[in-house]
User: What shape does this take?
Amino acid sequence: MRHKLVPARHQAGSLTVICGSMFSGKTEELIRLVRRSMHARKTVQVFKSALDTRCDTTVIRTHDGTSFNAIAVSDTATLAAMITADTQVIGIEEVQFLDEPIVDLCTNLADSGVNVIVAGLDQDFRGLPFTFMPRLMALADNVMKLHAICKVCGEEASRTQRLVNGRPASWNEPTILIGADESYEARCRKCHSIRDLPAQNRPIANRKTNAKSGEKPPKRAAIAEAPPLEDNVAGNESSGIQLEMF
Ligand SMILES: [Zn+2]
Assistant: This one.
């Protein structure tokens, strides 16, 4: 038997976005918030993108093995059709894999009094905003940006490193490649690496050395833009080699 303390239409709706890199604990946080709502006797429905083949069709599984029942959907229209009239809380896992109309559906549901909690990647493997996620985050009432630990240096990680056969992925590869022969790990901004990075996306200090490999940037320009970095370049002869990794 369902217990409802507050009818959906009478509660203030909200949109909460849980975002961050892979391994940052987004799913665990989504499950925590959904369980909290269930303890408050709210009527809950949890969905996940059917694109995500890591899990069973009706189970959300976290990286540490915790699982939670969910309805697998392939797009926004399917998800919308499955929402029941008495639902007060809706959770959506891997929201970035759904289609863009999910943004309007989430805001409409929140406007209608539903507490919507979504979890998703905010950046793709290149470190660029993931499709409609910026819009979803801007329209949200609450945004929780979680961090993982960098696999290389142990600092806080905000990016997802894609590795193909042990090498950093190329900039030109497709964004979504679920189930492909590749691996991912969390990395900080400094340790995150992409092959074939376009010149305009390289760190400022790296651009000057790009024309002729290994050549130091002009001293005057480097001092004007970033004095601490110039100190580092002057005192570290291997900096030209590091730049080649990008
Ligand atoms: Zn790092």
About this structure: The domain at 8-147 is CATH 3.40.50.300 (Rossmann fold). Helices lie at 26-39, 76-81, 102-111, 133-139, 204-207, 219-225, 227-235, 239-244.
